[in-house]
Amino acid sequence: MNHLAPRTSPTHAAARASSRLASAKATIATITALGLALSGCSSDEPSKKSYTVPTTLCGAAVPPEILTAVLPPGKKLRTKLWKSEYNQSTCRVFIDDEPVLAAHYDWRLKENTIFDAAPALMELDRNKDVNPEGTFGYTKKGGITKAACPNPARSEYKTWQLFAYIITYEDEGTKEDMKNLVTAYGKGMTESSECTSKGRTT
Question: How confident is the model over 88-101, as pLDDT tens digits?
């Protein structure tokens, strides 16, 4: 009667099983480490603001660090100006081709208030978001100011009021950041070609 001898001894089989288990654990550890590294990269990357921030917001000088505070992360920034033939202008800021912020100026009759000029999206509360003089108001979503413009480029605006306001489409920055931006934008408009007699037309 023939007896079949086992090809591998129990000791060798156990050793091989232990080696396979160790190899599997090493593979899992490697995959896990790689996954953590990749997730770390993906979580860090979106938080970076790799674009260059301009020193002007479509003609109005604004310190880059003030504008940056309300902008989201991304790689590329561009601006585009829409200017009407009459009394309004809109400048939009795009990050990676997505609109993230809009800066406006609007000439209105002097009797108009900031509530007449401010869009509903700003959600201004006259009891907590507006200064006592009623010339400046802001929320985290945007802000508006009556910009001084004693020498408008267009002489017919001499008796009008210039309103400058910002709307953000992102939840970036704080309410105080928006206050700083609107203040800077209003000052920039006062010093822009819109409000200098050098560029005056009739």
Answer: 899 999 999 999 99
Q: What was the pLDDT predicted at 98?
A: 96
Nearest to 54 by CA among 91, 21, 85: 91
CA distances in angstroms from 10 to 16, 41, 197, listed in the order given: 10, 47, 99
Tokens at 171, concatenated: 């939840």
H helices of the chain, where? 10-44, 64-68, 114-117, 175-190
Dist CA 114 CA 165 (whole Å):
9
Parts of the chain with a pLDDT under 50: 4-5, 31-44, 199-202
Q: What is the pTM of this model?
A: 0.74
DSSP state of 7: S
- Tell me the two tokens of residue 202: 């009739």
Q: What is the pLDDT of residue 94?
A: 97
**Identity of the amino acid at 68:** T
**Do the Cβ atoms of 119 and 139 come closer than 8 Å?**
no
Structure tokens at 5: 């001898």
**pLDDT, position 58:** 84
Q: How far apart are CA 49 and CA 177, in angstroms?
A: 17
Q: Is 80:98 a contact under the CB 8 Å cutoff?
A: no
C-alpha to C-alpha distances, 89 to 31, 57, 138, 166, nearest whole angstrom: 54, 12, 20, 12
For residue 65, which of 49, 79, 81 has the smallest C-alpha distance?
Answer: 49
Q: How high is the pLDDT of residue 26?
A: 55
Could you tell me how far CA 70 lies from the centroid of its own chain?
A: 5
